[in-house]
Specification:
With 105 residues, the chain is mainly β. Helix content is 7%, strand content 28%. Bound molecules: iron/sulfur cluster. The site of iron/sulfur cluster has 14 residues, from helix 1.
């Protein structure tokens, strides 16, 4: 479903049936529409759809974003039981690169 920012996101739900306008993010309980503008989740889900990867999202403010609210995501592999450092690539367990992409030394 498309978010208010116009991006497809599997975590977004909107109910507009018969005049309703209920919107929610299934990752963030205290979701606000403007969080979708800079959220990294749609990019992550487009790059990696591994069903074993679990996303945890939280809203933070930092000095680097001039105290604007931003969604920060951490990922965890349920199969390997470890943190995934690069969620767009994954942990490498389920979807290894084909040998043609391996660098030989
Ligand atoms: S905040 Fe992020 S995860 Fe939630 S609906 Fe918006 S884009 Fe999707």
């Amino acid at each position: 479903m498309k978010t208010p920012a116009g991006i497809e996101c599997a975590q977004f739900y909107g109910d507009y049936y018969r005049g309703r306008s209920h919107e929610e993010c299934r990752l963030l309980p205290n979701w606000q529409a403007e969080l979708c503008n800079t959220c990294p989740v749609p990019d992550i889900l487009r790059a990696n759809s591994c069903e074993n990867m679990h996303l945890n999202a939280e809203v933070n403010r930092s000095i680097f974003t001039l105290f604007q609210k931003r969604v920060e995501v951490s990922t965890f592999c349920e199969k390997k039981k470890r943190v995934v450092d690069n969620p767009k690539i994954g942990c490498g367990e389920c979807h290894p690169l084909p040998p043609i992409f391996e660098v030989k030394e």
